[in-house]
Specification:
Layout (H helix, E strand, L loop, with lengths): L16 H22 L8 H4 L1 E10 L9 H17 L6 E5 L3 E7 L4 H9 L4 E11 L17 E4 L10 H5 L6 H13 L21 H12 L5 H6 L10 E6 L5 E6 L4 E2 L3 E9 L4 E8 L1 H14 L9 E5 L2 E4 L2 E2 L6 E8 L1 H13 L4 E11 L1 H30 L2 H27 L5 H30 L4 H33 L4 H30 L3 H4 L9 H4 L21
Parallel strand pairs: 5-13, 6-12
Antiparallel strand pairs: 1-3, 1-15, 2-3, 4-7, 4-8, 4-11, 5-14, 6-7, 9-10, 10-14, 11-12
């Protein structure tokens, strides 16, 4: 008789179920620990459950520039819209792309719908304005020295001759300006077209009351402006025209808010032909390059010619996006068709500024496709109804399993519990990770997944019962049934996942929540069946209750109508002793 080959597991081998169970246990512990460590122990709720406003925007390109609707431009638009939403003082708002040309803005409850639509639905306004003066956005003190000419965070120069003049740390050392000093600075800046700042260290001139009511109002507005307040930052640019002198807020290089007095806009965003953050190999630093259109070059040459003759801070121009200063580089010389902004940029900050500058020239606009407002009370009712529906569906599945499969229902319930824990933990982690929010369609997807998961158990249980009906005992039946059940389960789950993937790709909005949850739970079904259901079934087959086919095990051979045990017939050969013959 030939000996069996070493290193090869016999057909229907038991395998090592302990390894699979240990693997899924480690995964559950790790994911649960990550959930508690992140501080997000509950899934994020969507607008339809938590209450709020959901706005769907569709990008529209100018005629002849259809290729402008691309991933880069859409991501830039998302960043700008997110800045606007944050300007409303909103926390936990969601701004994300869906599909190729849609942007979804989900704003939690507590925000005025009309104001939200105005903020996210209008085209971004980008202007280049000369800086007249600025000061740290801090409460004014009765005593103190005037704000000096702090060094800007970046400098502007020609593309081939620029140097890094940025000295970020000097700004933070500038003392706060007093209210009277701020008033004098505003008054003097508005009186002369080319104001000259007070030399550092000299005493400022005595304040003179302004005869112009507009100048006095601007002085007061600048003095009282608190850029630390999100509501004031959002309202500071309302109703301001490009030709107006205005106040604005912006962050300096170290992230502190500052307030500015800005002159009329000299260059518009549409005058920028192209802008991008690039790495200068010669100087070993990140810079932002700008190219202007024909008319934009003339405008930029005129303004830089004036600014290059001024002292700081009047030699700076502010890049203002939606009323907020995103950068305020100083000018060292007259510039024209091309320029660069250099300073202590990182790759991210240089590319972000380049995207903002180029967005002013993007031939994009957005149409509001839909606006949905849900109250918190209605969202709570919908969530409660969804949970009740899920509980009823789960109860019916459990009742069916207990009545029909008896002891095997324990395996199914444990598997459902493992699947539910993994689903909950992953959903809680996906909230802060990718912005996933549990909405009502997603809850429906989770409910549907209960049936898909239970179907996998039923397929495996029926295959085991078929093997017992053929006369096999439980332990070999569990192993022989697995290959056949595995193929069926994989094919079934693949079809479900494919349907979910197609639905996710071709739809937008809340339907994607259903598709995403369905796809996620389908993948988890495969994981649970392979790493938990099959190994636990292998272990239970070794117990007396299930192995001997107890009447309440669900695997009683008599109840299943099993055939007599399969036995191999043995042939006996009679031999005759020659002596007896």
């Amino acid at each position: 008789m030939a000996a069996p080959k070493k290193g090869r597991r016999p057909a229907g081998g038991q395998g090592r179920p302990g390894r699979a169970l240990a693997l899924i246990l480690i995964a559950m512990v790790a994911l649960t620990g990550g959930m508690f460590w992140s501080g997000h122990t509950t899934p994020r709720l969507g607008i339809d459950l938590a209450g709020g406003t959901s706005i769907t925007l569709k990008a529209k390109a100018e005629p002849g520039k259809e290729d402008a609707v691309n991933e880069t431009n859409m991501n830039t638009a998302v960043g700008i819209i997110e800045r606007r939403v944050n300007g409303l003082g909103v926390s936990e708002a969601e701004v994300q792309t869906q599909g190729r040309e849609n942007i979804i803005v989900n704003i939690p409850k507590g925000v005025d719908e009309k104001q939200a639509r105005e903020q996210v639905g209008t085209t971004a306004q980008l202007y280049f304005r000369p800086v007249l003066t600025y000061a740290p956005s801090e409460p004014a003190t009765p005593t103190g020295s005037p704000s000096g000419t702090a060094t800007p965070s970046a400098s502007a120069s020609t593309a081939d001759e620029g140097e890094d003049d940025g000295k970020k740390d000097e700004k933070s050392a500038t003392p706060s300006a007093t209210a009277s000093t701020q008033g004098r600075a505003v008054s003097e800046a508005l009186k002369a077209p080319s104001p000259t700042p007070t030399p550092s260290g000299s005493a400022p001139p005595e304040a003179t009351p302004s005869a112009d009511p507009a100048t006095a109002a601007l002085q007061q507005k600048f003095t009282e402006l608190n850029c630390l307040d999100p509501k004031q930052r959002a309202a500071v640019g309302e109703g301001v025209k490009p030709e107006d002198t205005t106040v604005a807020c912006g962050k300096n290089a170290i992230g502190q808010w500052e307030k500015y007095i800005l002159g009329p806009a000299e260059v518009e965003g549409k005058d920028v032909d192209d802008a991008k953050g690039v790495f200068d190999q010669q100087r070993g630093m990140w810079i932002v390059t700008m190219d202007f259109t024909g008319s934009g070059s003339k405008k930029f040459q005129q303004i830089t010619s004036k600014l290059s003759q001024q002292q700081e801070p009047q030699n700076q121009f502010a890049i203002v996006l939606d009323g907020e200063v995103v950068s305020a580089p100083s000018v060292r010389q007259t510039l024209s068709a091309s320029a660069e902004i250099s300073g202590s940029f990182t790759q991210s900050s240089a590319q972000d500024l380049g995207n903002i500058l180029s967005y002013g020239a993007l031939p994009l606009s957005f149409d509001t496709q839909s606006v949905t407002t849900v109250t918190a009370a209605l969202g709570g009712e919908q969530l409660e109804a969804g949970l009740i529906a899920g509980a009823i569906g789960l109860a019916l599945v459990i009742l069916y399993l207990v009545v029909y499969y008896r002891g095997l229902s324990l395996v199914a319930l444990l598997s459902l519990m493992v699947s539910a824990i993994l689903t909950y933990v992953i959903m809680a982690l996906l909230g802060p990770a990718i912005g996933f929010a549990l909405n009502l369609p997603a809850v429906c997807g989770a409910i549907v997944a209960i049936g898909i998961t239970a179907d996998s158990f039923i397929v495996y249980f029926e295959r085991i019962r078929d093997e017992i009906r053929e006369g096999r005992t439980l332990r070999p039946a569990v192993e022989r049934a697995w290959p056949r059940a595995r193929r069926t389960i994989l094919v079934s789950d693949f079809v479900s996942f494919l349907a979910a993937a197609v639905l996710f790709v071709v739809t937008v909005g809340k339907v994607q929540g259903f598709a995403f949850t369905l796809g996620l739970t389908t993948l988890l079904d495969v994981v649970v069946v392979f790493l938990f259901t099959k190994p636990i079934m292998t272990l239970l087959a070794r117990t007396k209750f299930f192995g001997d086919g107890h009447a309440w095990s669900g695997l009683d051979p008599k109840r299943l109508g099993a055939k007599p045990p399969l036995r191999r017939s043995r042939r006996t050969t009679a031999t005759i002793d020659p002596k007896e013959a």
